[in-house]
Amino acid sequence: MNYIIESNPNKIEINYDFISIMENKLEKNIPLTQEEANYFLDYLIYATRSKLTNDLDNYSFEWKCDTAISIIGNYLNSLNVQYNVCDSQKVITQGITGHTFMIVKLNTENGIINYLVDPTYRQFFIKDNCTKDKYVLINGMYIITPSPGYFIKEEDKSIIKTFLQKGYSVLDNNIARIYGDSFYNTKVGRYDKTYNSINGNIYLNSFLKGNSPLSKTEDELQDLSLHKQNIKTL
Questions:
Q1: Whole-angstrom Cα Rg for the chain
Q2: Three-class DSSP category at 222
Q3: Which residue, of 44, 56, 68, 133, has the fewest CB within 10 Å?
């Protein structure tokens, strides 16, 4: 499958002893080092994606956002980690491409850090869905648009390439703008193709207020659930 930004998901060797240490810290609200926070998120994204496919290099993750976010959310519940589930049509605007993502709040030595987490964003960068031919105009109004990936500016592609690989990023104004604008410009019912951009701080504050429920319980996920490691080192 061809993508407009070639960026295969990261693969990692999982050190379960290390994961168990971080799980215990999170349960007890002990701050993680930055190295631990990054490793935990790398594991979280890799483990979630691996629950959805054995072919990380080629799988697009289309229509898997709700399941992926539910896998993560139920696991974080077991660790008492706070997060916000975001529905793009509620935290950005209605009439855009629907998608579910989340903001994860990790207690670190640098304070509480908010992370934009989206393991399945890759689905919006399939080349065939990111062309101007995807616009459909009826009675002077656009009723279909290209996928969000089409709306990534050239100067932002290096940032998005990293985000697509890792599946997470520290939530700041810049990534909030890039990510938010990619969805905002898929809005239908417009009469022109003018590219619109919103201040990243507006997106950021809206994302932090996301309060959508998880779509699936741990029981409903069955064998897709992530579980705490059995090794107790603290």
A1: 18
A2: helix
A3: 133
